[in-house]
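ENTRY TYPE: protein
CONTENTS: sequence, structure tokens:
***
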Amino acid sequence: MTQEQDLARRITRQLDQGLAEIRPGIAYRLRLAREAALERSEGEGEFALQWAWAGGHAPRGLVRFLSPQYLLPVALLLLGLLGVGYWQTTSPSTEVIEIDTALLTDELPLNAYLDSGFEAWLKRSQPQ
């Protein structure tokens, strides 16, 4: 016997002892409500969406992926991917690519851009 079954038996025993103090009309209504609840729980199919699995088993198949524990991370992941895609298309990196392309296709040799004197000449020649 597991601890869970032992706890369930002790709780049932305590509830049964308290049942003697309840009036017969209330006890009858409680019994009808319990039977109705048991009938409803037995009528659920195997693929019923369950939010709490106390004493039961997790649903099988694709339905279990509809629970919030799976949907929330997937939604956040998709939102993040969309954000990164938007940021990549609107980032100023296209301007950097255009400048690099213009510098590399210009008639000046690459060593001219590395010369510190050329950098000083560029600063002086820019309109202020």
Notes: Residues 1-43 form one domain. Residues 68-90 form the longest helix (23 residues). The two ends are 88 Å apart (CA to CA).
